[in-house]
Structure formats: structure tokens, C-alpha cells
Structure prediction request, 183 residues.
Amino acid sequence: MTKETKPIPGAMTLAEMKEFASFGSATQRYIRRSLDVGLDRADAVETWSRDAVEEAGIKVQMKLYRRIADIRKAVPQDCAIDTIEAFMPALISLAAYDLGQGRINSFPAFRFLYERLLGPEVRPWLPGAFCAAASLPHLHPKTRKGLLQSISEAAATAPGWSTREPSFFPEWVEKVDSSKAAH
Prediction:
């Protein structure tokens, strides 16, 4: 007789937090900013722009991310080729934008962001969209190479995908002045 194991409450959240912590600081910042833009969580310009150039970049991202609701609605319910026509081009285009920003530098970071932006139903489509976007000529050849090498064989050839909702959604954290913090 085997004992059925149940997930420990919070274990998946902790695993997601650890994964997020493994990304570089620029990637973490971009993911948090993108979630604010894509999930309409906060005033992204107010929170994230440090100068006029960054403000302009956030405004472009806001315009492109307006497609997210339509992309969510178009996620295919099966793997039939005729169901992807309204979905994959829009997903690849959005992915190409994000990869072109130079802050998402691996498939794990891309997957982390897009699972949260679009939901768990998008998981089967992420390897294809990532590889397509990472192959586009708007990226420098070294960048394309690094991105494509970042997707593991297991991720590219997975026989199935979890439908579990992500539980950790990183947000802006105010810096604390340690010199004024109570001891």
C-alpha cells in the first residue's frame, strides 16, 4: 500500500520564488514591470520610469500589451493546426517585442513571465513561440544563439504540461534606507 503524496501548501509558491530569484536583476525588474503593464496592476510609468527614454519604452509596451486580452481568448483548446491561426502570430509578435528589449535572456524567464501574463493554458505553446521569436532577424546573432540555447530539450519536447495556475506574481518593492531602519 502506497501513501498518496499531496503538495505541501506553499511549496509551489516557494519554488516559483526561488526560480524568480535565479534571474538577473534586470530580468527581475523587466518581469515585474511587464506584469504591472500586462495585468494593469499599477501605474507602470509612475512606478518604473527613471527617465524620459524609459517612460517612452513603457508607453510602447502598454500599447503592445493591449493585445493580451485577445491573445488569452485565442489560446487553442487543442493542438489542431487550424486552431492556431488567430493565436500564434500574435503570441510570436508579442514575444519578439519582449525578447527584443534585451531583458528576457532565457526560456525560463520568458516562460515565467508569459505563464503569468496569459495563464497556464498557454504553456504548450510557449516553446514554439519562444523559438520563433528568438529566431527573428531583429535580434543580434549572438542574442539569438543565447536565447535558443537556453531552452532545454525537456522544455522543447515535453509530453504534457501542468494546468496549475502560477501562485507567485512578483511586484515592485520599495527600497528601505537601512541607515534609518530601526535596529
User: Anything to note?
Assistant: The mean pLDDT is 88.
